[in-house]
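Technical appendix A lists one of the benchmark inputs used to test multi-chain prediction within the project. The record comprises four sequence entries:
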Amino acid sequence: MSGFGPGDPFLADCPARLAVELIADKWTVVVLYGLSKGPVRHGELIELIGGISRKMLTQTLRRLEAHGLVRRHAYAEVPPRVEYELTPLGATLIDPIHMLTEWARANGDAVLDAIDADPEPVTHTD
Amino acid sequence: MSGFGPGDPFLADCPARLAVELIADKWTVVVLYGLSKGPVRHGELIELIGGISRKMLTQTLRRLEAHGLVRRHAYAEVPPRVEYELTPLGATLIDPIHMLTEWARANGDAVLDAIDADPEPVTHTD
DNA sequence: AGGCTAGGTTTCCGATAGGAACCAGCAGGT
DNA sequence: ACCTGCTGGTTCCTATCGGAAACCTAGCCT
């Protein structure tokens, strides 16, 4: 009835579930998108993304690095220069992410509209 | 150089950014996936997803409802029966989510492999 | 009456997110 | 020589989140 078979992603303790939890945080998708055009410096990402703190950027990049999606190049220069780029594995995530960006572009207004029509306690009335 | 134009999603204060933050939490994507086959009851989702608590399920569904992606049907029966289903807007998210599931299916092992090859302090060495 | 069911909420506590401030290391201005 | 600044990163502290378990409602069954 439910139509989900065994090994179905998301619904079990499988690699797919882990992969989803990998990207399901506030900044991962945005950072991957920021890296999608080629190597970018730490400071450039800060400017580009807007709203992310240095700490969260570093933390997100470190996790992506540990998961094999991003590669870090630290040049022994002064002032220090560090560039990040997608690995081939990380690059395979760009397509799904682009689908999300297109969805967002097309439906972002509809979501805002729904929020507007449904003023739930998103802002708590404390 | 960076190649991102004005109004580029993720990189600015636009509806797209909001939409991404909408789905960028631990359970939203999984719950949407669980709803992708048609109306499902609260309890079914608990069984189906595995690992989610009732609290987080309700919370996630409420947010999705407030954002116009999910519709709630509460039947005045005893014992109570509540069904959730995607709205047409919510259904438009299924395609991007399926791309993620396919990515995960194809690359989940590669991610696990990278983690294995890179035993970073995921478990802190305290 | 007491227990069962199913959805939901509350309470409590540990984990995490996030901003601000601080650190390292060297070049350049004064 | 010293102070400042640039760049990347880390530490401190707090607000929020996530999760387990208990409790609640309300009608049915035994």
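Residues 120-126 of chain B have pLDDT under 50 and may be disordered. Residues 15-117 of chain B form a domain with the Arc Repressor Mutant, subunit A fold (CATH 1.10.10.10). Comparable benchmark entries are summarised in Table A2.
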